[in-house]
Amino acid sequence: MTPVIQQTVRFRTTPHALFELYLDSKKHSKSTGMTTRINRKVGGRFRAFDGMLEGKTLLIVPGRQIVQFWRANHWKKEDWSILILPFRTQS
Question: pLDDT band for position 91 (50/70/90)?
């Protein structure tokens, strides 16, 4: 069975700001210091970290969730991962 990795990270900013940073090529590039190209549409492709990651966006719930199908360029061509990013405030 494929392993599942679950991680929770808290940031001192709003969910909206993180959502925008993740889907905006310029903001994402500036935050990582590496080139990122992201198509903000469902089905759109992306390349991040100077081309070390590539993938396709499967779902966007504006301001709330992003789901992507992605792979690192050093992985086998058939190896892919699904990334689910929920954006929410903690109470």
Answer: low
